Amino acid sequence: MYRRLFSLPGTRAFTAGNLIARLPAGMFSVSAVVMIAGSRGSYALAGTVTATGLAATALAGPWIARLTDRHGQSRTAVPATAVAVLGSVALLLCVRYGAPDWTLFAAYAATATTPNTGGMSRARWAHLLAGDTEALHTANSFEQAADELCFMLGPALAAFLCGTFFPEAGTLVGAVLLLTGILIFTAQRSTEPPPSPTPKGAPPLRVPGVPPLLAGFVATGAVFGSMEVATLAYANATGHRAVGGAVLALQAAGSCAAGLLYGRLKPTGAPELRLRWCLLAMSALMTLPLLAASTLGSLPALAAALLPAGMATAPTMVTAMTLLQHRTPEGRLNEGMSLAVTGLLLGIACGSAAAGWTTDHASPTAAFWLPVAAATTALLLGVLSKSTP
């Protein structure tokens, strides 16, 4: 299946460039926290700066994507990336030379112009595979697995660079990778979707069936955000803080493997029904970390539970993205994909905050109820939303 996918001319080149550009997505926030906290001695400042960047990304992302739909990926992504890289370099220099705290917020906010590389890649597949439902399902599965892989490797690479060389190394390497990857990606003009100066249809937020999907992305993001904080807090509470990130990576590993396997299966039935089954599986599997933490009370047990717990998230995301592609009007696909990412970021932020509050006021074990609640909310949204032709 995957060999057939990459036999299409130009697909290997644009995928290679996109993977290089996508890897820094998992590097920048970790690098910024290590760099700022190490220099200024304040994790609160580091967290606030990265949260500001997250909020700026949520606001700027759909706008950048709309420009991409109207003017084309090559004309939009390169200047947007240049601004984001300059923001990263400015942040690095401000930290290095002790600039006032407010400059850190301004510099990191500039990185919000980073294009949605995953969305642009999915838009290319949708353009190349128009009408081939089975092949598009495989392509979306590969893209989701690539997302999981980058978010597994990115933080580890950032931590290694910052710890081995100098605190700014993670940010510097991430900026170089982002610019290099985007230049390779946008150079592949033959696979680029044509621009739509006058897009057909209404904006995605006004299309029936899209808002419930976006609400589901918010709930799914809350699953990710709350599970991350709960796992790291639990590892810290059990005296294994150093391996918390590695334990958490098992969830992404399970999702990555499941995504690749899911892409090899032939999709059957309505995608709305498939999404509900995926959401049901995710809701059920999210109880495994809760049971491991509350009944067995050991980090190895939690690690063993996180691997299968992640196996429903990739199929859920693949099916939801496929539905979003079907429902988004022609010429607005990048905007639709960007709104999905915005929903995920909002959910991650809310889930992280809720899990942090629960950890402080109750316990890390109690925080594992939140992924279950978020997954159940996503399931209810999927069940209650009406099918859209």
From TrEMBL:
Record field: transmembrane: 20-37, 43-65, 77-99, 157-185, 213-236, 242-263, 275-296, 302-324, 336-354, 366-384
Source organism: Streptomyces hokutonensis
Gene3D superfamilies noted in UniProt: MFS general substrate transporter like domains
InterPro entries with a match to the protein in the record: MFS, MFS_trans_sf
Annotated protein name in UniProt: MFS transporter
Key words, A-Z: Membrane, Transmembrane, Transmembrane helix
